[in-house]
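pinning this so it doesn't scroll away 📌
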Amino acid sequence: MLACLGCPGLSRTLSSGVLHLPNTFVSRTPSISASISRGSQVALARYNSTAQQEKVKKTKFGPLADQDRIFTNLYGRHDWRLKGALSRGDWYKTKEILEKGVDWIINEIKVSGLRGRGGAGFPTGMKWSFMNKPSDGRPKYLVVNADEGEPGTCKDREIMRHDPHKLVEGCLVAGRAMGARAAYIYIRGEFYNESSNLQVAINEAYGAGLIGKNACGSGYDFDVYVMRGAGAYICGEETALIESIEGKQGKPRLKPPFPADVGVFGCPTTVANVETVSVAPTICRRGGSWFASFGRERNSGTKLFNISGHVNNPCTVEEEMSIPMKELIERHAGVFGCPTTVANVETVSVAPTICRRGGSWFASFGRERNSGTKLFNISGHVNNPCTVEEEMSIPMKELIERHAVKFSGTSSKTAAEHCNVGSVRFVTSAAGGVRGGWDNLLCVIPGGSSTPLIPKHVCEDVPMDFDGLIQAQTGLGTAALIVMDKSTDVIRAIARLIEFYKHESCGQCTPCREGVDWMNKMMWRFVKGDARAAEIDMIWELSKQIEGHTICALGDGAAWPVQGLIRHFRPIMESRISEFQQKQQAQA
């Protein structure tokens, strides 16, 4: 059956459609299929036939141990320059990796089970092997997609900002695997600090002889260049990116021909994601089987996840593939990435006294559900601005009149006589990752803004990997989780995303240019409720007319958020329409 493996957010490394057979990937494009070497086919067959036998049936995934993390400077706590990178193991035995040759590198990548980390999920080893056909005299190029324009996604910029040498070394190893002589890193124009750090790392690598002529002393020549874009979301699509590098307007090309045949400057090209390229050297050093030991079959390895939205600690974290979504959020999106309770200073301070004197003593003050004592601040137009401890439920007038008068020392009854020293009832909030606790969760967009959202009950046990999220009628995409709690107007949230896609459409394809514009207009009417219930089915059909009918995946990425909204939150849309109609009738 035909499976959609294209990245929902233009994936930035979108490969051709793929025939998806159990445990097997076969290109549907004859010219590319024919280009796979016999050795690559044998390696792939060996991987497919032994995957189930070699992998133990794991039932628990994550947390990832520190020694298994590939990106060890993700938060910029250490030196990101060459000296620091060398101390963390980068560029270690790179010469030996290069000297082992093309077939060995590609085989290790295939054994690892690495799939494109930009969202497409295409098997990386197979994709790289497409370049290893007999040379026709044209040079080959590696293009690294560092545009990262998907809303909610910020993993690649962390690599370029804090671990740039991982990317530079990855370019060298990946380039060697496909016989390329140069890499172009296409970086988003707004990423000024990231591009600056990356250029410094490239200059350091040139100065140390790690790239350039006779890279790492291997006899292999390889150059790395940084190309800056101008912030167009469409340039995240691989052929639009190639057009931009060539100095043209960034608009997707028709396929075929595919970039592996006719890419940048008309030469064979592979476009790969930053994370995909960056992990290659570590896989080659530690072995493909080591990488494949994480995650589950066909979803192996480690992965960078972004967690943003209504969480206590928005973060980028490296975790094992297939970790349950709930565990990922609760473990890493709390304060310091740990399960967390946020409590007030006064709340914490009273706990020992309550334990010493007893909870019933504390509960004897105030009234039911408002028990204990409390610190009150009184300021403004009073004679004696003060902070005073009083019994809960004291009348406001008495509180002000008793304590905010100018102290004369003649009071017959002091505040202390009115209030035994105690404290406030214990109130906590924001336990775990989701703001207000897991029960306050409404929904999650799991893979960047272009993947369909899923509601709380689906998030409970869904694994964060390609296959698990496809079964949940969404996708891993860029693995950028956008968390929404119950305070969210989910209709408005999706409308805002559609407005973004309308703005970023290049206008080349009629279904996208016209369809997304109409979806945008309809969604903002749904926000107000100024629509008919039948229009929900209408916008669903409109999204289906856009999906799969455009040159690139931007059309799909615009359609899927609307489909996810209707699939899971149709009652809210109908309720909004009903409320608007009732309000209009009442005003008539």
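📌 and the second one:
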Amino acid sequence: MSVRIRLRRMGAKKQPSFRMVIADQRSPRDGRFLDTIGTYNPRTDPAEIRIDREKALKWLQEGAQPTDAARSLLSKTGIWQEFRTGEAPAPKPTPAEPAEREAPEPEVEEAPEEVVAEIEEEAEEEPVEAPRPEEEEEEEEEEEEEEEEEEEK
């Protein structure tokens, strides 16, 4: 029997939530299953993912193959990496309140006057004029007239 870790759709119409289940590959999406290992609610911000780490690792070690969606959720929780490497991933640092640093502000050197003068001279150059919309419209009209003449021939 080929066993899969997959998502089982729950919730009302247009309000999906999912259970992560262990099921036979041949059973329907919402059909019989062997075990429930977690839940996934995509409607919250951020999406709520709850997976029993021990159950998931047990089934993965027994040969259960996760679907693409299930593998993605297992990766987000770190269970997939733990299964692949055999060790738990490093915990992500929690964003603590940033400590106020009392580092001295870096000294800013002013540019020499020569460089400032060169930059001002470059800025004084006149910009190139873009084609006026009137000219573009005239060109388009001429092209359309030529196409009409060719169609008449």
